[in-house]
Amino acid sequence: MINKLDLQHHPEFLRQALKPWEYWWQTLNLGYSSQFKVKPPLSDTQLLREFKRRLTISPLANSHLVDIRFQSWDRLLAQQVSVAIAEAYIDYQQHTSERATGQSVAWLLHELQGLESALQSSELALQSYLQQHLQADAEGSANTILSDLQQLISAQLMAQRDEAEARSTLMLVKSTLQQQPEQVATLVGITVPKELSELGLRLTALKRQQAEISERLAPSDTRRLAMAEEIIRLESALQSSSNSWLLELENKYQLAVAQEQALSKRLRLAQQAYQALTEQDEQFKRLNRELESNARLYNTFLEKFRALEALEGYNRGYTQLVDPAKLPDKPSKPQKPMMVTLAGLFAAMVSTLLVLLKQAMSRTFSCVEELEQSLDIEVVAEIPRVKVRNHKWLRQGVHPWLGEPLRSLRARLQMLPSHGQVVMYTSALAGEGKTSLSIQTASACCDVEKVLLIDADLRRASVSSYLNYSLSQPGLTHLLSRTHSVSQCIHRDNQLGFDVLTAGLIDRHSTSLLASKKFKLLLQGLRQHYDRIIIETGPLTQVSDAVMVAPFVDAALLVVEAERTDGKSIETALAKLARFELDISGVVFNKVARNRRAYDYDLPAVHLLERSSVVVPFHEDSYRKQG
Predict the structure, then answer these.
(1) pLDDT digits (tens, 9 = 90+) for 98-151
(2) Residue 59, preceding bond cis, omega within 30 degrees?
(3) pTM of the shown model
(4) How far is CA 533 from CA 66, 182, 480, in A?
(5) Please, are residues 439 and 495 in contact by the beta-carbon 8 Å criterion?
């Protein structure tokens, strides 16, 4: 079929589809791309392998139908190949069927000749056997011989019994006569002659009388002598009679033995005759079965031969084309909707697995209970997450959603020693929201207290950029270096309502100022003028600014961002403070997912009306300006 369609020179097998990366590479370099590239001609083996790869033949379930499919870039070729495959198979099966029928007829003819010869041989063997043994009268002869056998067996048993009785009688009589002849009359179960019995009884009586008179009479007494002579005479007569009786018994025994031997001989001859007759009957049955089997097998083969001979010239269609292939209206693949759907499902599964894997591998916390149970630390405030676009909202006071949590934090600070006058905000990692939280805490406390906000993060100061202050404004480093006065460094923000001490000029030696005595004296002086001092420091795991400031404050609060800060970083930060014998007053859990049903005591509508017409999201700016 491949040669018939001349597939060796068909363009379908002389080009190869481009791979996706090759297609896009040509598109980017040349501005256009074809879907195929030329490849060298295929060998016969390669062509057959490629053809088989594209061909699919599958039977339909619960039917005798077969589905033939061929994949091709050319839909006309796909139709031609499918139809050609079906026609080629029909021709092949028809040719195979005709050839098989001819071979079957020749084989059956050869077998019939052999079966006919075997059948004739069986018939001749059976006829010859019947002529020799007159098998027609075999059944009657067998019944007669069987009846005679039964009679001879009964007669033989009786003769054997008579022989045994005669032998036992003869042996018993011989034994008795040899030992005590006079006791022969007392034998039980044996018919003793009357004369012999009387002689025995008389002899027994005389011997008893002799024994009685032998004690009274002398040996020379005539009566005793006469009695002795009588006993001798009786013994002689008894011996003569016994010999005659023994001779009679022996003759009777010999007669019984002769009869038993004669019956045994007749029985043996009868058995041989019956056995020979039985063998003849078995031979007859075997020849008869062989004849019937050969006749039945010959008739079966003869019927098959006549049926095949009748069908040999008849062209019967075993296979037919039910539904010819038609030109497809649309390509079978690629199935873009299915591929997109599967890709989407696969991406969703992979992303879900990645999220689950990330959650399983990370030790971040999403609620206060997880944080407190895992690290055994107290959470003094839970600050919700709010969405903001920039930091302008920090100059508008306390955010409506943060008012109640910050007031709760202020109340907790009031319960600390010295009412938490000096509060330090730090974190384990950078970017956890401590700058925004410090500004919002100052805004929440300034309503009832005089508040000062100090930016002590001398590595990455961000209060100035968050509150839109000038970077050249004097701050903490200027004050500790004594280049400026307190009034020059502390800025009063009338819009926010609290004072701000920015970081000032930052260089590589600035952090050493926090460990100096000047910073301690500065805080002591500021305590005299402010009710609340809020200090922001750098992250504990990255810098040591918080360790320098912590000994001088009343409360050190660790800011932990929900679902971001891992437990290992928090433990590292706490261990760093513990090495310097410093403690954390509590944890502020920041950016917690807000409960939509939470009740706010602020008035969002008033705040939004006074501040802006757009709700500004709350988050830290990822880009910070350094002083």
Answers:
(1) 777 777 778 878 888 888 888 888 888 888 877 776 544 555 566 777 777 778
(2) no
(3) 0.46
(4) 88, 160, 17
(5) no
